[in-house]
Design a protein that fits this description.
The protein contains nine helices and seven strands. By secondary structure, the protein is α+β, with helices and mostly antiparallel strands. The strands form two sheets. Strands 1, 2, 4, 5 and 6 form a five-stranded antiparallel beta sheet that branches. The longest helix is centred in the first third of the chain and has 16 residues.
Length: 252
Amino acid sequence: HHVAVACLTSDPDTSIREKEAYFTAMTRRNPPVVSLLLPLLAVATTSLAQDFDFFYFVLQWPGSYCDTAKSCCYPTSGKPAADFGIHGLWPNYNDGSYPSNCDPNNPYDASKVRDLLSTMRQKWPTLACPSSDGTQFWTHEWEKHGTCSESVLDQHGYFQAALKLKKQVDVLRILLDAGIQPDGGDYSLKSVVSAISDAIGYTPWIECNNDEGGNSQLYQVYLCVDTSAAKLIECPVLPRKRCGSEIEFPSF
């Protein structure tokens, strides 16, 4: 390159246009090192940047979990409170897909959340069979979902964020204040959605399951949270499965 440049610049008859054409042709054949590095730098920057778009914060009604053909088992600590429990805090993409199992080198470690365990047993109880202390449930949630939020939250921060969100949004109180009670009665899906959206300012998504008789019942409430895991947002995308227009709210 240096030789060619010297020849060109030492020739007074070479026009500016010819020089521009020469350098354009040379650049196409031999891209500068900087231009080759730019895509690599972009990839490196992206890998360090946020790698998901928002969280689903999912709350579960224990009465609906248990009132199925499969039934449930209470945790070893005893029957949970008749309240919505945490299911999980799930990183998600705006196109509806989600990352999972992002860091096999960072397994769940109860010692990292020792100060939260008592509250987790109350607010994030397991209902899976056989009865357990919740460790398997929390392990699954951290390793499948939590590890995909490591750019924002460490293990303690992940569980703490979910517990803070639970405290921030009392879904059962919201529904009770709207006259929607877990008494086995039927309520319109619209009334459930409206009660929650009126209270928090954002539209929830309701997931239903079926009881032994095949009736649709209020099972889970999805709320969307920004990537800081602290602020509620309007959901960028909603799951596809829908409830019927009338849903049962079973007792627990």
